[in-house]
Amino acid sequence: MVEAALTLPSFVERHPQSSSGDQLLASRFRDHASPTDGWQRVIDEYLTPWILDPTSLEEEDLEPPSLEILRLACRVAWYLQDKGWVPPLRVVPDGEGGVVFERDAGACFQTLSIFPSRLGELMTFDDCRLVSRAPVSFRGF
Amino acid sequence: MPDGTEPILDEELLYRRVPVSQKYYRPGIDKPASPEAFRPNKNRDQTGLSVFRAKYVSPEEVAQNDRGSKYFVAVLRAGDLRSQGIEVVPRPTEEAGPGHAELPGLRSENRRETEGEQKLLARKLSLEILGPYP
């Protein structure tokens, strides 16, 4: 059975990564975060330059994210910052019109994808094994 | 010189091209590279993830292109891949040359089912990342 995609606010409520819950995972990511890590850094170093110059992402056989998806990614980043989510290491294009926020805590690795359809998923890996995959909807966000 | 159809030995080194433009890797900042660098491309990697055999090509040659694009080159060892259950086979073509090879388990159509292998390639199996070139 496929799990229904929750809207982002409901998803964040279900997957809290601040002081309110999921503390072990949150603390692992927080422990590995560098002092300069932050949602704003990801916006400033990755998303904003791409929004200002979308041609910088053009590459043979890779579909770059649209401006709409890049702006959505910024809004998601600001929202998750407000909700106390531990910041990602980076955000990268997925080559198919979407973007992926990546968090790294050594053996534990997590990705939050935004697809061009405005759906997405949070995937958690332990020692490179996929341990969970949760759908999320960014529609209307 | 062989024609590229001979079996790939465990000790052979392989190169995977990683586009600089996508920020999958930033020297001195990111270690390791993003697993997205090993995501099968829906156009290019239909029968397997493309790599190149170091016995046939240099990292500079792997990155060579006429579009002005720059590339890093991730270095892998065939035996390391096999020890993790990732097969690598020779796949020489006229366009890519005798050094072309593929990881047939990682194809565009099953890319969502091979997320773990993509993470392994980026996080455990990449020996080093060279470049950027040119």
Descriptive overview:
The complex is a heterodimer of chains A (141) and B (134). Chain A has 141 residues and is of the alpha+beta class. Helix content of chain A is 33%, strand content 26%. Chain A has a 6-stranded mixed sheet. Chain A starts with 5 loop residues before the first strand and ends with a strand. The model of chain A has no long low-confidence stretch (mean pLDDT 89). Chain B has one domain (13-133). Chain B has helices at 59-63, 78-83, 115-125; strands at 13-19, 49-53, 71-77, 89-90, 100-103, 128-133. The model of chain B has no long low-confidence stretch (mean pLDDT 96). The interface between A and B is medium-sized, with 24 and 23 residues.
Short description:
The complex is a heterodimer of chains A (141) and B (134). Chain A has 141 residues and is α+β, with helices and mostly antiparallel strands.
Mean pLDDT of chain A: 89
The main sheet of chain B comes to:
6 strands, antiparallel
Strand order of the largest sheet of chain A: 1-6-5-4-3-2
User: What is the rounded distance between the termini of chain B?
Assistant: 26 Å
Class inferred from helices and paired strands of chain B: alpha+beta
Largest interface: A-B, 24 and 23 residues
Q: Going across the major beta sheet of chain B, what is the strand order?
A: 4-5-2-1-3-6
How much of the polypeptide of chain A forms β-strand, as a percent range?
A: 25-35%
Task: Give a quick account of the main beta sheet of chain A: strands, pairing sense, barrel closure.
Answer: 6 strands, mixed
Shape of chain B: globular
| Strand proportion of chain B | 15-25%
Number of domains of chain B: 1
Number of strands of chain A: 6
Helical percentage of chain B = 10-25%
Helix content of chain A: 25-40%
Round the Cα radius of gyration of chain B to an integer and report it: 14 Å
What is the multimeric organization of the chains shown? heterodimer
Rg of chain A (CA only):
15 Å
